[in-house]
Automatic annotation (TrEMBL):
CDD domains: GH32_Inu-like. It comes from Poritiphilus flavus. One of its GO terms (molecular function) is sucrose alpha-glucosidase activity. This is Glycoside hydrolase family 32 protein. Keywords: Glycosidase, Hydrolase. Residues 12-320 form the Glycosyl hydrolase family 32 N-terminal domain. GO terms for cellular component: cytoplasm.
Amino acid sequence: MRYREAYRPQFHFSPEEKWMNDPNGLVYYDGTYHLFYQYYPGDIVWGPMHWGHAVSKDMVYWEHRPIALFPDEHGLIFSGSAVVDYENTSGFGTADKPPMVAIFTYHNMEGEQEGRSDFQTQGIAYSLDKGATWTKYQDNPVIGNEAGIRDFRDPKVFWHADSSSWIMVLVAGDHAKFYRSENLREWEYLSDFGKDVGAHGGVWECPDLFAMKDEETGEEKWVLLISINPGAPNGGSGTQYFIGNFNGTQFTSNQKDTRWLDWGTDNYAGVTYNNLPDEERLFIGWMSNWDYARDTPTENWRSAMTLPRNLRLLKKGDRFIVASSPVENFGTILKREVQESVQLASEASKTITFDNLNQAEVRFSTSGDFVLKFKNSLEEELVLTLDSDKNLFLLDRVASGKTAFKENFADKIQQMPVADLGDAPATFRILMDWSSIEVFINDGEYVMTAQLFPNEPYTELEIRNPSEEDLDIPDLEISRAETIW
Ligand code: FRU
């Protein structure tokens, strides 16, 4: 049996061995979902970056593939994206054999060490065998860094039908830059966005730009994802988004507030798939945080991706939000084993035992407040609290297990404002996979993702009613999740 080390996720993607960070080059082609990722094959901490590679037919089961991109004379291979060039605009293939093209950042370590500021540039590579092998473009880099922008990286490229061109968004420290191209080799600068809006607690990273339609009205909006590190609401790394418009040249937004795709500490650098049908927006994030990513207590490998998530645009009151929920296929590996109706008077509690809550899904709906504890025999506990007086949902991993590996891993309780849970009972879907928890409220209107490292699996689920009213949970379910490996 493979991949059974302590804390190894059983239904999330993780590399066979060694260090992984951001998802890269997410693209769907000819029935296959490709996942490339920031990878250092030499150690379980960050080092000279390659693009690792895996493929899936269903976004549930993954197969590992050989490393796709290696560092070269221009530098290490940092984050970026991939497209299918159907019309062979790049000339790297033929119309019959369209190339896949990867667009990434070169990070020149020698340049950085010499104190230069132009050490990040953009390069491309192509594959004529559906992603199996890659050739770097001989005239790399395709975008140089004459202005000497220190943080100049993470290009996301997509085909923009309205302007019949390739559009690129990348980040430059405190803002995003847009470019266009007709052939993926020559790029023309278009515009900037973001210096004066949104969160700026840290450097902007890993942008993504795409159109979405409101499910109800069909109204179209453009969404710009921007990861920032540090500056996230619960510390360290996080992903904010802007709702606005993109006219082929410029992204504009009237948004005044900062919106977060996920309020937990461990969903970073996430981006979406290219080349899916319009109405599908599939997202994968890196389930870690630069605050402690290199210190987590795993051996042989480090870190995992979030579950692939479906993004949806919704209108709440007079504003649009982006909701995210697990990809539908994921349901195929769940087996329901507990189904209960729970009624609790004020301050009453109930405990359900289940042999392994660390590879399971818990779901229910309720209109009341609750304190939910996942516990093991060592008295370690992960606590989720809904407090509607304060309009807060809390995730407390302070006593969840191993936490001392880094002082800022569990120094405070994570908070998520939940001002608008609606009149109907709110739905809660909680997925735990050995060393992670993902919480989706109301089908992903509110989301929290966090890592955790209990010394033994949790085997008890305690539900307490902290309020003065009765608590009614008519439909508590626990499902076991099968392993995907
Ligand atoms: C985000 C990031 C990117 C960069 C990559 C390097 O986590 O810092 O901005 O391209 O990681 O591995």
